[in-house]
Design goal:
The chain is of the alpha/beta class. The chain is built from 21 helices and 20 strands. Among the domains are: about 210 residues, ATPase, nucleotide binding domain (Nucleotidyltransferase, domain 5, 2-Layer Sandwich), CATH 3.30.420; about 160 residues, Nucleotidyltransferase, domain 5; about 70 residues, no CATH class. It comes from Clohesyomyces aquaticus.
């Protein structure tokens, strides 16, 4: 086992699936190389933009042909991951495919079949760790996605490891997280002390672990608004236009540039189409942004009854947000809509409501012909095509409404802020350059590392592999805000089961090796007992056994049984049974079956079209001491700073995943589903395709 640990996460979104590869030092190596400050920090994860790959479309499109999701979709992603995970570390590397909004809206039967195909294909074609499909391949709820995003943002910004450097006042040092995709939107933040006490039952307890094994706990509120992503909001908006004018075939749309005509699906109206002939409705752009803002406001559904005050959108409860201390970062559409078109000159500046609204109004008041010419000239950059230019007026209107009228973010540039007075002038100046002390700032990367919820997932997983410094320490994961381990507690993918000093505990522990070990134990007891029962009884029993299998004949048969079976049962012409284990004859014949090893060289990772290696089916890795290579420069020796360089991500070539088994320990995979998908535990499972009844642990 090498000094690096690896993890692979596939983010299966509505428009496509993106694979992310991460690595971090195994806990023994990290502790040996860490400074005092680093010991009190979370594990340092590394990634690189080369380790990321996205394919289109999303896996939800395989609902009618799930058997194609493997060869037509996953193979490219898994092949890409295998380029950056060393061959000998693949069996020790966990693989997760976590699907989001696109799969959430798929009918449950189709969803179940697709997920089963995904797991089967990955197990059949790779050696990645997949001990439990219910845990490693699943549709995660929006709350879980938001929680992972909150962990990723605070990990990169340094809110976890250096609280004194991120003092927002009132003892608060973490950042809020906002995410908006096509189908849903999420919010996650730690309320101030007053709100946290008042709404304790609404919070999620997140438990992490630093490199030295110390616990780190945070209480976070997280919720999701399904249907409030930009695409679903646009669909609700168009439906409202159709309902308001059911007889009209030309519907004025102030959220489209003037002169643009599109179908109700958002496609340009073609010559001779039913829309042009007046047989189907079409949307006609008027380019009036202020009216667009007015018409999108009702989509917030703030008039819905609030059963648990306070509420923000859709009648859903959210504790009061104290913007003096709660500073939010927004990703996905919050970034794309504010920066891809309007932020080219100031990508690192904080979001300014007044400036942004002015830019959007100026853009959307242009005619579609003017905008088309600007796109052709590359006026707004290479990433802005006609489709993005067509959609941006509605998206900007929706984003502004959600941020300011929905969530209540103060309008920077218009509303004076009362916060930041508790921060030092130097910190305020430095943070202001990136906007992280403003109420809201859209981000895509922090320290050249993409802010992705997949990073939060792997930070939680890496922290769970660190042995606790106390036997009373609680597990890493998240669940209800209750003392101890609540019933709905979600483990990141594995739970430690330390190996007992006593062999009996080793044999009967909750381990995937327990059943093979038990069989061998029973066999040993049987052989010892049989040897002590006397020659005549052995001979009689042997004749009965052989007769059952058609080889013994009647009692008293003179047929000789040569070799070890005959000697063991005392059948034959020579009384050699007394030295069967001393002479070595029996030992040569009595041995365990050999381990069927399958080489990772069965696949080539030099091209995407290469065949992926076969699976071993064995999910629990092994550990060996002395893994660090003293000749190799380590992460901590390089002097890179976890905050200034984005937690050490985006560095160097790959090689990764060390074993969650420490000091001779065995890992037992805890079969738990994500808390917010139902709060149920799956039954305890061990890998289903073992190559050998037993694999010995390597000596420590």
């Amino acid at each position: 086992m090498g000094k690096w640990r690896y993890g692979v996460v596939l983010d299966a979104g509505s428009s496509g699936t993106r694979v992310h590869v991460y690595r971090w030092l195994n806990s023994d190596t990290a502790r040996a190389q860490a400074s005092e400050t680093q010991l009190q920090s979370l594990p340092v994860l590394e990634t690189d933009k080369k380790w990321i790959k996205k394919v289109h479309p999303g896996i939800s499109t395989f609902g009618d042909n799930p058997e194609d999701v493997g060869p037509d979709h996953l193979e490219k992603l898994l092949t890409h991951a295998l380029k950056y995970v060393p061959l000998d570390e693949v069996p020790n590397t966990p693989l997760f495919l976590l699907a989001t909004a696109g799969m959430r809206i798929l009918p449950p039967p189709k969803r179940k079949v697709i997920l089963a195909e995904v797991c089967d294909f990955a197990r059949r074609t790779t050696q990645f760790q997949l001990p439990d499909c219910d845990v490693h391949v699943q549709v995660i709820p929006g709350e879980t996605e938001g929680l992972y995003g909150w962990i990723a943002a605070n990990y990169l910004l340094g809110g976890f490891d250096r609280p004194k450097d991120h003092d927002h006042g009132k003892g608060h040092h973490t950042y809020g997280f906002l995410d908006m995709g096509g189908a849903s939107a999420q919010i996650a933040f730690a309320p101030n002390a007053t709100e946290a006490e008042k709404h304790a039952n609404d919070l999620t307890l997140v438990r992490l672990r630093t490199v030295d094994g110390a616990p780190m706990e945070h209480k976070v509120f997280v919720t999701t608004w399904l249907g409030f992503g930009v695409n679903q909001a646009r669909q609700r908006y168009v439906n409202a236009l159709l309902e308001a004018s059911p007889e009209e075939t030309e519907l004025p749309d102030p959220c489209l540039p003037s002169g643009l005509r599109v179908t109700i699906e958002g496609k340009p109206v073609k010559s001779g189409s039913p829309e042009e002939n007046g047989k189907e409705p079409q949307l006609v752009g008027t380019g009036k942004f202020s009216e667009c803002m007015h018409q999108t406001y009702p989509l917030l559904e703030k008039d819905k009854p609030c059963l648990d005050n306070p509420c923000l959108l859709n009648g859903q409860h959210v504790p009061a947000i104290d913007f003096d201390v709660n500073h939010f970062v927004g990703v996905s559409e919050y970034w794309h809509t504010t920066h891809e078109l309007f932020g080219m000159a100031h990508k690192d500046r904080a979001y300014d409501f007044k400036t942004y609204q002015q830019q959007v109004s100026e853009f959307c008041s242009q005619s579609w012909e003017e905008i088309e010419r600007g796109v052709e000239r590359g006026k707004w950059g290479k990433k802005v095509d006609q489709e993005k230019a067509q959609e941006v007026c509605f998206k900007a209107s929706w984003l502004i409404n959600v941020l300011h009228d929905g969530i209540g973010v103060p309008r920077v540039g218009i509303e004076e802020l009362q916060g930041t007075k508790n921060t030092t002038h130097a910190l305020l100046k430095g943070a202001k350059e990136k906007g992280f002390l403003d109420p809201f700032q859209a981000v895509n990367k922090i320290g050249d590392v993409e802010v992705s919820w997949t990073l939060g997932k792997m930070v939680l997983y890496a922290a769970s592999e660190i042995p606790a410094h106390s036997s009373e320490a609680l597990a890493v994961g998240f669940g209800s805000n209750e003392p101890g381990i609540p019933a709905d507690f979600q483990y990141p993918g594995g739970e430690y089961k330390p190996l007992a000093d006593d062999w009996h505990d080793q044999l009967f522990s909750e381990s995937p090796r327990r059943i093979p070990g038990l069989l061998i134990f029973v066999l040993i007891i049987f052989v010892v007992g049989f040897m002590l029962c006397g020659r005549e009884r052995r001979k009689s029993a042997g004749q009965k056994v052989l007769r059952v299998f058609g080889r013994g004949g009647r009692p008293g048969s003179l047929r000789r049984r040569r070799g070890f079976p005959g000697k063991l049962f005392g059948i034959g012409s020579t009384p050699s049974y007394e030295r069967v284990l001393e002479s070595g004859e029996g030992a040569d014949d009595f041995e365990l079956g050999s381990f069927d090893s399958i080489s990772d060289n069965d696949h080539s990772d030099s091209s995407e079209g290469s065949r992926i290696g076969r699976t071993s089916g064995w999910a629990t890795p092994q550990i060996k001491a002395g893994l660090a290579d003293p000749a190799t420069p380590t992460y901590f020796e390089s002097g890179r700073d976890i905050l200034g360089q984005g937690a050490g991500l985006g560095l160097g070539p790959a090689s990764m995943f060390s074993n969650p088994i420490e000091r001779g320990g065995l890992m037992s995979r805890t079969d738990s589903r994500e808390r917010l998908s139902g709060g149920k535990r799956s039954r305890a499972n061990s890998p289903s395709r073992l190559r050998s009844p037993m694999i010995p642990l390597k000596e420590v």
